[in-house]
Amino acid sequence: MSKTLARSFALNFHLSGSNLTAISSEKLTIISFYNPPSLPDVRHLHPILDLVDSGNDIIIGGDTNGYSHLWGIYSANILSRNSTAWRFGREMEELITGSGLICFNDTDNITPTYHHAASSADHLRSTIDATFGTIDLHVTNWR
What we know:
Blueprint: H1 3-7, E1 10-11, E2 20-24, E3 28-34, H2 49-52, E4 57-63, H3 83-98, E5 102-103, E6 114-115, E7 125-126, E8 129-133
Parallel strand pairs: 3-4
Antiparallel strand pairs: 1-2, 2-3, 4-8, 5-8, 6-7
GO molecular function: catalytic activity
Protein name: Endonuclease/exonuclease/phosphatase domain-containing protein
Domain Endonuclease/exonuclease/phosphatase: 29-142
C-alpha cells in the first residue's frame, strides 16, 4: 500500500476487536475478520451491518470457518462433514445477503483455502475464506 493511500485510512475503533479489524477512509471501509470455531454463532460479526448504510464502499475478507455454496464448495465429500461449519456458513450467508453485500469468491475456479494439518487428502481441504463487499466494487482475479 502506498504511503499516501495508507495515510488516508484510520483504524475504526468502534468495530475493531479480537476477531475483527476495520480501517476506514472517506469512501472505503476494509474489514478483516476471524470466526473462531469455538464460538456458538456469528453474532460477533453483526456490527459490520452498521457500516452497510454508511454510504462507504465496503470490502470484508476473512476466515468464516463455515461452508457455503455462496463462496464455493471445494470437495463433494465435504457435504457430509462438520455440521458446525455448515451452520456457520448458513449464518454468514444470511448476514451477508441480508445486508445487500455480495460475495466476490470465484466459485468457478475454486481453490481450497484450508488444508487439514493431519492429511493431504483432497477430502480434508475446504474453502472457508471469503471476500464480500458492496455491489459497486469490482474485484478481478480473486484468490
